[in-house]
Write the structure tokens for this entry.
Amino acid sequence: MISVDHVTVRLQGRVVLDDVALSLTERRIGVIGDNGSGKSTLAKLLNGLLLPDEGTVTVDGFDTRSHGKEVRSRVGFLFQNPDNQIVMPTVAEDLALGLKPLRLEAERVRQCVSETLERFALSHMADRSAHLLSGGEKQLVALAGVMISEPDILVCDEPTTLLDRRNAALVMKTIAGLSCMVITVTHHVEHLDGFDRVLVIDEGRVAHDGTPDQAIPSYLESLS
Amino acid sequence: MIAGLYLPGDSVIHQLSAPVKLSLMVVMGLALVLVDHIFVMVSVAITTGFVFSVLAGLGFARLWLATRPLLIWVLFIALAQFWFVTAEAAVLVSLRLVTLVWVAALVTYTTRLSEMSDVLVAICSVFRPLGVNPERISFLIALTIRLIPSVFEIVRDVRDVQKARGLERSYTAMFVPVLTRLLREADALSDALVARGFERWGDQQ
Amino acid sequence: MSARDTVLVAMFAALTAALGLLPPIPVPVVPVPVTAQTLGIMLAGCVIGARRAAFAMLLLLVLLALGLPLLSGGRGGLGVFVGPSAGYLIGWPLGAYCIGALVSRFGTTIGVLFLANCLGGIGLIYAIGIPVMALVLDLPLESAALAGSAFLPGDLIKAGVASAVAAGVLRAYPMQKNASP
């Protein structure tokens, strides 16, 4: 469970998030809003990549400010651009990187990597260069690289923005199949089907907070 | 992907282990400095050339390729000898230079990148008490090899854009956007590393 | 080293390597080809600071020694460390460190950047490169200096370019700044 307690964030003098208070416990949470509304900033707060100027963010009781390592071992993060997330030259090597903090034996790492590759239907590209894959494949590799360390919570920051429709649907379907808690920031409201809760962020504040049936129509209305 | 200079083969030289080859190279380098007889030097050079091209199976074309960047220097030495040294000394110095470069190139051409890395990690491990972390160093190497093609792509991209704007002659116009993009990507990449547990790699058990 | 240090070190080692892949820039009157590679040393020193820049150059030398052809013209391997220009290579990390140290001490105006690039990126590197060249070729220092001076016009141009670029970059992207929203 993540709790955001009266958090304000300023970047270069501008207030990006303004006194936001949330308690996040649902299994599937969507975050929508315009460019620059502060939704990506909110995502980065949740695993301590960004620290609040005022207020606190805690994950299972760990403050992101003082216990960054504990927080990040619980909260996985999927970025918008998989190119920035995939670090190692080949798919298998990149997946193994996610296990490095666990200090497993080489044999255990190999086994874990091959199981994860299989789970995400990536086994056939284990030794391929990660950077020559298609956008959708790269995002799946990035996702597998996060999930291999079995975080309790996955935060996705616009995971499909750079993908075409077919690949976006594939990535969202894969994310939907995960057993952990998922918080997804997105532009695509159609990907929020079956979500438990949707937050609409507008100018640094939570403008709407409810079930998809309540929040999405009000967001779409505010666009017109 | 950037490929190493290693040329696969199964010669005697290929089969020697990397530490042995590197030690031999160092010994050879020291020994060459001591050779001051021209006939000894000529025979050492011929032997090295033979080992390089025939024994290691790298061929004469490759030998020539390793020698070519040195020709300008050999020419320079030849010219300089008119003023400073004797012809014999010039030949001696030129051959010493060429032979030493052949020996070093021979090690590089016949040793896999991974074997060389292993030697590096082994050397770094000695300095572990001083705070050197060999694992971090091999990660840095892998990260750099992965970044070279991306950086080159960014340079090419920006050059195309500036060409379209008629600015291809201005290096400032070209490199400022390249650098700002690299710095932005560096931020994104370090965020990703942190998110993927980078801070916890160094933890001892 | 933090994650950011690590990435910046690798990024600028990669930049310097990638600059070696660019075709040499023909400059009239200069007898030797001018490669963009030493630009990487100067840019690193000016932009990411002394320590990180020195590590970046050291990393590049390690990659060369391991057998990667990352010098301009596709040269690399252990051979470059026993040739006449070995001293210049050894000068790279020290030169980058010197530039960074000067810049952090005297500020980032274009004049300071240019002087730092000339002192660290040319002066210091030549001060190591030329004696080593003289040693390897067994020549008097003066004639080695004469040979080395062929690169001076090109290097001065690069110091100018690197200073202008670094000044622009540091204005567009202050290095102390927090992550973007």
Summary: The longest strand of chain A covers residues 14-24. The mean pLDDT of chain A is 91. Chain A touches chain B at residues 44, 47, 49, 68-69, 72-73, 76-77, 79, 81, 83-85, 87-89, 93, 97-98, 100-101, 103, 129, 131, 145-146, 149 (CB under 8 Å). DSSP finds eight helices and ten strands in chain A.
